[in-house]
Each structure stands twice: as structure tokens, then as C-alpha cells.
Amino acid sequence: MKVRLVPTILVPNFLEFEKRVKFLEKYFYLVQIDCADGRFVGNKTFYEVNKVNEVVGVNFELHLMVEYPLIEINKWLNNKRLKGVIFHYEAVDDSGGILNIINYLHKKKIKVGLAINPNTKVEKINEFLPYLDELLVLGVKPGWGGRKFLPSSLQKIRKLRKLNKKINIGVDGGVNLQNARKIIKSGANVLYVGHFLSNINNIKAFKTLIKNF
């Protein structure tokens, strides 16, 4: 599968958000906006929908680290640049609720990803794989940037790839030039990277690395 690199935006305020968007949109066709509500995770990020709509001139997807993903999803549906939504398995009470969100987004022509925290076992999400566009493995405890990648995530990626050869498997948290090859060889094909992609030299180095896969 083709390997993709997606920059993430996890910032506390509008000024930093705008600055990061304007830099990234020169080099990427898609960015991910990390939405942390301060309840589902301890950290809170900037993702106020009206202000985001004013400044984002690039296609984007949402990583919803929030307690009530469906409520948040409905705030964004009028933005034609929204291409995908990733919500957390741990934020929804039951299988029916997860499937309802997946079906709802697909009816809106929006790609759907399901994220799992480091302590969530692969066996818990097997039933959803046929319906998803992507499964996102969190390589760190979610909500903060700059944390070290958990090596146990590699085994989780390998299990998922054995279960489904076609699904996109993303990895978010602690991804860098030193561990990216191991992550890709384990079966992941979408790499989410945060502030490491804050200068052109690092962007070029990462893009060169993934060309070899």
C-alpha cells in the first residue's frame, strides 16, 4: 500500500493554529486537526469551527479526542474541505453507537477512521474493520504532543495488518525519522507527525524516507 504522510495540528490557541496552517498548506494537500476537549483527554486544543473555517485553505480531517464525537461532527459538516473524521473507540459506549457514526459519516461522503488508545486491545475492534476507511493506532497516550512512541504499538499494527490487508492503518504519536521505517514495516501506511514537520528540511527528509516504500 502507498505510504502517506499527514501533518497534525495540535495547538492551544488561534494564533498558533493560523500560523501552522499557513505553513503546512504550502507543502501538503491534507492536514489533520487534533480536537481535544479537556475531558476525554486532559489537554485542550484549539478547534473552534467558525475560526477554523475562516483560515483553512487546505483539505483537512479531524481527529476527535472528545467525549461526544457525534455532537462535534455535526458542527463541521458544512465545510467542503472536510475529507475525513477519526473518532475514538473509547468515546462511544457500545458497538451500535460506533456503527451508527460510521454509517452517518459515509452517508455524508466523509471517510471514517476509528482510533484506539495504547491500552485498547485489537480484539475489541475486529468487528468494525470491514466498515472503516482507516484504523488509527495511538503510539502514545492521546492529547499531548512530543511524547515518546510506545514500542508495544508495533505488535498491535502487525496484528491489525494480518486481520485486514486492505484497510489504511495510521499511527499517531511519537512518529519520527528514527522509528518510521519500523512502523511502516509493521504494516502501517499512514504516518501522522506533529511539530517535527515545522521546517522544510524535516519535511523533505520525511517525504524522502516514505518514497522508499
Provide an overview of this structure.
With 213 residues, this protein is of the alpha/beta class. It has a single domain (4-211), classed as TIM Barrel, CATH 3.20.20. It is 33% helix and 22% strand. It is built from seven helices and eight strands. The protein has helices at 14-24, 49-55, 69-76, 95-107, 152-163, 180-186, 200-211, and strands at residues 4-9, 30-36, 59-65, 82-88, 111-116, 134-138, 168-172, 190-193. Strand 6 (134-138), helix 5 (152-163) and strand 7 form a beta-alpha-beta unit. The longest helix has 13 residues, at 95-107. The model has no long low-confidence stretch (mean pLDDT 95).
Features:
about 210 residues; globular; 8-stranded parallel barrel; alpha/beta; 7 helices; TIM Barrel
